[in-house]
Specification:
By secondary structure, this protein is α/β, with parallel strands linked by helices. The chain folds into two domains: about 190 residues, ATPase, nucleotide binding domain (Nucleotidyltransferase, domain 5); about 180 residues, Nucleotidyltransferase, domain 5, CATH 3.30.420.40. It is about 40% helix and about 25% strand. It is built from 13 helices and twelve strands. Strands 1, 2, 3, 4, 5, 6 and 12 form a seven-stranded mixed beta sheet that branches. A five-stranded mixed beta sheet has the order 9-8-7-10-11. The protein starts with a strand and ends with a strand.
């Protein structure tokens, strides 16, 4: 099958599209990435996504309209990708759309008198995508895992295990997007021994601060140009590390609810009180990512396994300050870009959700309960026919 994976991540930069040729079934699944492209959101759309995802009160009508508007944009991205790769949409068997997360609460909580309520919402309606492209579309992957008692995230570890397991080497697949997450695969591990979780913020805080410093002109601190002019401020780092999420045991998942606007405002209040320079604030916000990744590895991974290989992907791979700190903190590990093994760093999640949809289409479960905390395996997603 040719499966077209679509996703917009926590940073809401735009729509990633990956065309994947897939055959077989686990554990002998065969995959080949045929093409990858990214289609940026129009600026007003990105602002609205970030506004609603930040938890700012919004009329339900605004959320509903944005759901259908993103469905149209995801459809256009899918068709534009096919044109770019000179592939007729009729040759694509399936579209996989993760959509755009605007709320995620993986941990159970009481709501309106009922205990154990978990909630997640990804928008970009898959029925619109199916109708506009003429291709069966699977979307809304996370609720099935939540219904099975899981956090609904991370889901990519299912694909990490298929790609990276090894009989003799302990491997960690690390993805640094808006949120950073890792998958730890011990040598010769069965799926139930895989450990995976969100470590905390990835690029999210530095991206938001870059936008603030530039009055919206910058989407990120490219090549850590601002951060590298600054220095670490220990008091600010300590204030951020006091967040209890970092000490919580896996399984766990995070998003803007934990590390969005409110977290950044608290950090900037500390910075303002200490009269810190903007470049020092950026340096410290950036270093929070590798510090919390390395702390998570020390707390939860190293007691189980040695890290022989660290396979890195996501936008954070392009940040030299993050990568240099990770290399210094894991001197015995071999660093490998996911691109060296056929999946470019920026294409990893689009690729992964194409694989998840392939499994769902064949009615096979594609969550890892050891990663999400679910009580059972679950077939993910909802299928919409054109």
């Amino acid at each position: 099958m040719l499966v077209l994976g679509l996703i917009s991540g926590t940073s809401a930069d735009g729509i990633d599209a990956g065309l994947v040729e897939i055959s077989g079934r686990p554990p002998r699944l065969r995959t080949h990435l045929r093409g990858f492209a990214c289609f940026p959101y129009p600026a007003p759309v990105r602002r609205e996504v970030l506004r609603i995802a930040s938890g700012e009160a919004a009329p339900v009508a605004d959320i509903s309209r944005l759901n259908f508007l993103l469905g149209e944009l995801f459809s256009r991205a899918a068709l534009a990708a096919c044109r770019r790769w000179r592939i007729s949409p009729r040759r694509v068997a399936l579209v996989s759309s993760h959509g755009q997360t605007i709320h995620h609460q993986g941990a159970p909580a009481r709501h309106l008198g009922l205990r154990g309520i978990r909630a997640t919402l990804q928008i970009a309606d898959p029925a619109v995508i199916a109708a506009r492209t003429g291709i069966p579309t699977i979307g809304d992957f996370r609720p099935a895992d939540l219904a099975a008692g899981g956090h609904g995230a991370p889901l990519v570890p299912f694909v990490d295990y298929l790609l990276y397991r090894h009989t003799r080497r302990g491997r960690v697949a690390l993805n640094i997007g808006g949120i950073a997450n890792l998958t730890a695969i011990p040598p010769g591990a069965a799926p139930r021994r895989v450990l995976a979780f969100d470590t905390g913020p990835g690029n999210m805080l530095a991206d938001a601060f870059a936008a603030r410093l530039s009055a919206g002109r910058l989407r990120c601190d490219r090549d850590a140009r601002i951060a590298r002019r600054g220095r670490l401020e220990p008091a600010l780092l300590a204030a951020m590390l006091a967040d209890p999420y970092f000490r919580r045991r896996p399984p766990k998942s995070a998003g803007r609810e934990q590390f969005g606007g409110e977290f950044l405002e608290r950090a900037l209040a500390v910075a303002q009180g200490a009269a810190l320079r903007p470049e020092d604030v950026m340096h410290t916000l950036t270093l929070l990512t590798p510090v919390t990744i390395l702390d998570a590895v020390r707390r939860w991974v190293l007691p189980r396994m040695a890290v022989d290989d660290l396979i890195v992907s996501g936008g954070g791979v392009h940040n030299p300050l993050i990568l240099s700190q990770l290399r210094a903190g894991l001197p015995g590990a071999k660093f490998i870009s996911s691109g060296e093994w056929g999946v470019p760093e920026d294409a990893k999640e689009a690729f992964a959700f194409a694989v998840l949809a392939y499994e769902s289409f064949h009615r096979r479960p594609a969550n890892l309960p050891s990663a999400t905390g679910a009580t059972r395996h679950a077939v993910l997603g909802k299928l919409c026919w054109p």
